[in-house]
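So, could you explain this one?
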Amino acid sequence: MNKPLKLIPIGNSTGAVFPKELLQELGVHQGDMLIVTRTPEGIELRAGDADFEAEMEIMRDVMRRRRSALRELAK
């Protein structure tokens, strides 16, 4: 699917207007999260996974608090 996205100002940021067909193909609705990933072919958009994001936040917290222990384990 090749469709142009219009960029619009949103406060001090910039947003994109997604066609309804693209939102349906991604399986997302207004307010949902999209995961943006850089790949060798370009940029990939995927529907966000709330469970995965929650688990990643827990791991980031553990890595911040246990940085020295993890550094020792990596040796």
